Amino acid sequence: RRLVKLQWTYPGSLRANESISLHIVLGLAVSIYFLVFRGGLYEGLKRSLYVTGRMERAKQHVVQHGKDVPDGKQFRKSELPSKFAPGHKTMEGFGKSTPEEIKRKKKEKQERKHQQAMREERNRLKRQREQGLDAIDDASRPIKTPRKDGDDVSSQAAERPNRREKKNANLSEEDRRRNEFRNKLNCCMRNADFKKAIEIVKDMETENFTLDQQQYAQMFNLCASSGEDDWKEGEKMLDKLNREMRESKLTENLASGIVKFCSCTGKHKEALETWTRMVEERVNRKRRTYGPLFALLSDGRDMEAMFDVYKDSQTEDVDLLEEDFLNIIKACVATKKTKRIFEVLEAMMELIYSLQPETLQSLKQVFESMDRRCKFTHINDPKGFCPECKKNLISLDLTKDELSQLCDQINSLARVGDAQSAAFDAFKSWLNRSSLPDVIIDGANVGYYSLRPDQGEKLSYMQVDKIVQWFKERKMKPLLVMHSRHFHKDALKDKPQEASVVQRWRDEKILYSTPPKMNDDWFWLYAGAWCSKQKGKVFIVSNDQMRDHHFQASSL
């Protein structure tokens, strides 16, 4: 309570009768630290007394716990007691239980577990009595024994009921049998085995089970994917479905399966009736509904129905694919509806930004059938001058406002959860404090170029490095964006050359590894838009046409 002159004494060798006025602040801070983070009030008080040099109190405190301290002894940190003396009311720290309390709590916990096990056993026997099953004698149950090193636990695991068995325990025999058929059909769907699925359906009919709409949809999709020999079975199923579910409302899944099957078998009437029924019942229509219809009507047999379906797809705001537009154009050529062709081409231009070689050849035949001269050419002029039509192609540059809007769209699409939002925010922060790149490289797209990952071919790190070095030789700073799975220890195992290349990328700070469970496309897309907004002109190296991302951004 009185002002004391501040002084400091070397803490390595403090005597019990020395004092330091800083103990008021420093001692309190050390005590709080050990109380909060180390869980011991006595330990904190002891350390604070040592650090501040109030050794008279240390002497009294140590003597209280069973150790005498002679006057004038020099105390060091190692000499102070670190544990409570035997017989103290607490064992190792402040606020912990005594041995008697620990035993009592352990006994109460065991009693609660025993009571819970008894309740579960009574409920199990009650369920068995309700189902008319005999109770299982306790002696016949497998005894759970602790696993030892080297024990084979597969037999014990087999004896324990799995989750599906527990779930089926409350089901009736009919429901259990129905679930078995459903699982078998799902297995046939995964293996694309239509013949096996037909056998299962016949077994279901033998036991007086009927297919639901989901199972009918599976069968129609399987039948459409199989050969012509199986289409007769599909026609029988279609007739059976019409008898059983004529009054039931269609689901999108079932209707799309019927349309797909009818498209394969050339059943115009049934396919259009199904689509008309979907419109009348206001069933949601997807692209998988329209695609088979356009393929079925591409012969131009019913142009009125073709354009009714096309207008309906525009009303439902469904993004059609390249093959869908091509089927519509083929129907227009077959019926010489030339005005309609240009209408479809304008809509196609809004959605499809690059065409496959097969589509280009088909379009060439379309224009030649209209007595138009067609010729392919390559435009390499920096101003986009076409040597054939003597015109300059328009450069579609984005304004800063459009780039800001694009960044906002990508940001909203990439942030789908708390973890993803935090990861994307970290990327934006990193991008903001880093120097702007001249070129952004989609590493996975470049690394897999001309390779077949579906056939086991791995990403080529050396191929990516060639692109990186090409730009560096031209004094352009690259930013390489790749997913973190490409840098896992197993990915670079036994590849010292590739590992050294990756380490060089990291040392040069040109690599950004995107986190798991996130699409790396959002990162290099955002980097391209944001850097273009800041710098004015940034290149992106990728073979990805970004069609899926374009559809998602258009939906916003």
UniProtKB/TrEMBL annotation:
Residues 174-369 form the PROP1-like PPR domain. Residues 383-552 form the PRORP domain. It catalyses: Endonucleolytic cleavage of RNA, removing 5'-extranucleotides from tRNA precursor. Residues 61-80, 98-151 have a biased composition (Basic and acidic residues). InterPro entries: PROP1-like_PPR_dom, PRORP_C, TPR-like_helical_dom_sf. It comes from the Eukaryota. GO terms for molecular function: metal ion binding; ribonuclease P activity. GO terms for biological process: tRNA processing. This is ribonuclease P. The lineage of its organism: Eukaryota, Cryptophyceae, Pyrenomonadales, Geminigeraceae, Guillardia.
